[in-house]
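**Reference record**
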Amino acid sequence: MTKQTSEYNKSHNSIAYLDNASTTKVDSRVLEEMLPYFVEIYGNASSNHSFGKKAKDAIDNARTQVSDLVNCNRQEIIFTSGATESINLAIKGYVESNAHKGNHLITVKTEHKAVLATCEYLETKGYEVTYLDVDENGIISMNQLKDSIRNDTLLITVMYVNNETGVIQPIKEIGSLCKEKQVAFFCDATQALGKIEVDVEEDSIDMLCFSGHKLNGPKGIGVLYKRNDIEISPLIHGGGQEYGLRGGTYNTPLIVGLGKSCEIAKLEYNYNIKELNKKREGIEKYYETNNVGKVNFKNVRKAPHIISITLKDYEAEEFLMLNSKEFMASTGSACNAEIIEPSHVLKAIGIQSPEKVIRLSIEK
């Protein structure tokens, strides 16, 4: 075990870090890009003097870098504190601004808790939510989705890549259906950016979110892409920043870092995917040839960085503890780490022995 995990070791302390779906290391080039905006170009980007304008120019450049990664207009990018805020802004904001269009939302039982908790909150306000089932691979049925759309359906929200399994949903087909039915489509693409090609135009996505720290950028910064003709209400009111949708002083260093991480992800995409696939194949081969565990979801499209394994002889927590000096990994989403209960994702999929499942998530 030691020899295998050491091949994927990128940390200074000789313990392999295999929990990149939780958070990634900040790229040194990203850090270098950010530093001047902490100590040199520290002006408020909302100020009219030259110091402020330099910061504003850097933010505009970052907005372009982000928009280039997802193929949208620069003006359609809204900076937030992360994907969780973006999810709340998109779903609550859209519902509030478009309540006259209906009272019904559709999502999936395997969505991130931020989506599910937001939908559950809206149910307390009188909205109706349909939670779609998934098959044994974690994929929704397009027929069930079609049948679930009603005359009063406001919004459909489906994540691009599942954060526990790596499984990719049929986003392009979902987007086409939403466009045909004139229902808004929101997509959590937090685990997709930099790992698979994401094009909001080609996929007919109306709103999309992700976080910088999943993309070798800093924590505390995220994005909501919102198509220009989509109206939402703000969660945070203030000085009118982000087109009046997210008040508060611009966090220039983090925005600059996020922009740089998006630029790098776009430029190095082909190389990164090649490296990820190579590492993935090595890890999967090791676990199966040595009879340590079975790789899950082998017959479905997955992002290359997330590997789900059902262990043969150990429960996940025990296995990770026994190997804690060799590598760091997770039993599922880091956002659920304090919740002592089986993964809602694995439960919805119907996977046997969910207590034996570990998630290894790798970097290039």
About this structure: Residues 50-70 form the longest helix (21 residues). DSSP finds twelve helices and twelve strands in the chain.
